[in-house]
Prior knowledge:
GO biological process, one term: negative regulation of cell division
InterPro entries: AAA_dom, CheY-like_superfamily, P-loop_NTPase, ParA/MinD_ATPase, Sig_transdc_resp-reg_receiver
CATH architecture of the largest domain: 3-Layer(aba) Sandwich
Number of strands: 13
Low-confidence stretches: 396-412
CATH topology of the largest domain: Rossmann fold
CATH class of the largest domain: Alpha Beta
Domain Response regulatory: 23-142
Shape: globular
Helix content: 40-55%
Mean pLDDT: 88
Bound molecules: adenosine-5'-triphosphate, magnesium ion
Structural class: alpha/beta
Strand content: 15-25%
Distance between the termini: 81 Å
Protein name: Response regulatory domain-containing protein
GO molecular function: ATP binding; ATP hydrolysis activity
Largest sheet: 8 strands, mixed
Radius of gyration: 23 Å
Number of domains: 2
Strand order of the largest sheet: 8-9-7-10-6-11-12-13
Amino acid sequence: MNNLQAVENKTKSAKQPLVTLLKGWIISNNVQFTSHLSAYISLWSNAKFISMTNSEVEQSLSQLKESTTPDLILIDGKNDWQTLIASLKQALKENSRIPDIVLLVDHADTVIMRQALKFGVKDVLTIPFGEEELDQVFFDCAALKKSDVKLGDISVFINAKGGMGASIIATTVAHMVTLQHTSPPVLIDTDAQFGCIPNLLSTNPKFILSDALEQTDDLDEYALQGLLSKHESGLRFIASRKDKLFDTIPTHSPLAFNQFLTKLRANFEHIIIDMSRGIEKFTLPALSEAEYIFIVVQQNVPAIREAANLIKQLKHLLGINDIKFKIIVNRYSKKIEITPEEIKKSLHIDELLLVPNDFQSVSASTNLGELLATHSSKQPIIKGMRTISNIILNKNEKKLKGIERLFSFIRN
Ligand SMILES: Nc1ncnc2c1ncn2[C@@H]1O[C@H](COP(=O)(O)OP(=O)(O)OP(=O)(O)O)[C@@H](O)[C@H]1O
Ligand SMILES: [Mg+2]
């Protein structure tokens, strides 16, 4: 008896219906694989799954309409799943909702996990898996479909090199998004060793990221609210730093982090991540799902070189599209001989976001424990950061200026 059969045989009685009807596909060229899985899935009266081979899927893609698109697709990792997912994504690119894709594999090594992230796979189940794992996939997918929410956007701030200013920028921008927007964002500090966001926000966190990642399955809206700490502005955040330095090497799984992110995204419009320490294995899902990746550099050759390397690696590793990359030149000064034009040229990028050097404002605000946007709201450094918060909030700078002008006319 194989492992999928074990899952099927374990529970023969009908299951409590899911919170909403779930339509799905099981894709495999192996009849045993599909029959065991569909027998198990049929225990839910409102899960309607059809089984198809890879070539049947390829043939049906041209006729696929929004109304016939499945909510969940389970793919047998034994066949060429990469080509299949690429064709699926191509066929569904006009759709408003992309189905959740779950890959079932015999061994989930790092190569498979990396490719799965690259192809936007929601979860990878290693055979044998417990029925609870598969049930959880169904519960989550049904809950998300029922809530019919648009998932919030992820914006990542990542340093090209240590100390470029990712933390201060991510925190200030998150604070500005809170002030500019009706619904506050969530700020995540992934740095377990030197994370400074609680200090910058002068707020002690009750829980840290590892607490959240230990219980991702049980996180509902209320549990999430309890785990997140709240700054007086309304900004929610979760930090990673532990008191015991020996415990600081993160061992979180990328899938747990991805699950946590999905839950946050179902409840918040904007998730802002301070990834100042660079790429870590568990944070890869945030990079592959991000709307924007802000790479923070300064005007020096090593930093620009590292940024070029980071862009190259992210493109190669996760297939990230060029338009997601935004380059922030922090501590910008006209006096430094490396010009914006030179930086653009060496990074093959059309636009740079300039945040001026302002040691006085930054050190006064951090020493006083007051956020930059409150302490130095009129300074050019805040103007530079506002361009970034407007990008996150999808505001067109020129349009905004037009509206502001109109309002000032009315006020006069
Ligand atoms: N635009 C700026 N003008 C002046 N000082 C700045 C500016 N941006 C950052 N700094 C200062 O640079 C230092 C590093 O900033 P920050 O902690 O944000 O960097 P980081 O890139 O997150 O560092 P790490 O790699 O340690 O995580 C801080 O002392 C901060 O006050
Ligand atoms: Mg930092």
